Amino acid sequence: MKVTHRSLVTEPARQLFGLPYKKQEHGSYNYAWLDWETTDKFKQLETINKPLDPAKIGLLVIDGDETTYWIGKWFRKGQKVPEGFQAITVPESSAAVAWVNGNPDTGDLFGQRAMETAHQELVTRHMMTEDDWTNLKYVYERYDPQRFQPEENPTTLDYIFYVK
């Protein structure tokens, strides 16, 4: 696993339409992703609105000791949430971005280890601080359809950290 791209960006205020998950199974949210993929939830999500971005999103919302993991897509604020889904509004923020390249079959690309690899690379490049990590409120995985090709090995997953 290696970081192949780093950048600083401004993330716009927007809403994530999707579903929240509080509990991991076997240390991951893979069970939730499997449900989304096998029940066409992404297709259902786009029935009344066009998303801002074609990428699938895995958003971690950290509030003290409580973490909620959302799966969904980004939409403009104020759009109607499709039945059966929920929304979370995320504010505009500076963000540090790292593209992590690795093997999707081994779990290399997902979870805490990949996120920490991205974080350490961004700290090393002075794009993020340890204080940003300690006070992290939002971080998301962006499954860009141009870069994330799970049938290819290796493939790339974007990690975006909201920073101060």
Can you describe this structure?
With 164 residues, the protein is an alpha+beta fold. The chain is 20% helix and 40% strand. The protein has one domain: Alpha-Beta Barrel (Multidrug-efflux Transporter 1 Regulator Bmrr, Chain A), CATH 3.20.80.10. An 8-stranded antiparallel beta sheet has the order 1-6-8-7-3-4-2-5, with helices on one face. This is AraC family transcriptional regulator. It comes from Furfurilactobacillus rossiae.
| Assembly state | single chain
* SSE class: alpha+beta
Alpha carbon gap, first and last residue: 27 Å
The proportion of strand residues reads 35-45%
* Counted beta strands: 8
Mean pLDDT: 92
Reading off the top of the CATH hierarchy, the class is best stated as Alpha Beta
The domain tally reads: 1
In the sheet with the most strands, the strands line up as 1-6-8-7-3-4-2-5
Largest sheet: 8 strands, antiparallel
Residue runs with pLDDT of under 50 for 5 or more positions: none
Core attributes:
164 residues; alpha+beta; eight-stranded antiparallel beta sheet; 8 strands; AraC family transcriptional regulator
Walk me through the topology:
Layout: E1 2-11, E2 14-21, H1 30-38, H2 41-45, E3 56-63, E4 66-75, E5 86-90, E6 93-102, H3 111-124, H4 130-134, E7 138-143, E8 155-163
Antiparallel strand pairs: 1-6, 2-4, 2-5, 3-4, 3-7, 6-8, 7-8
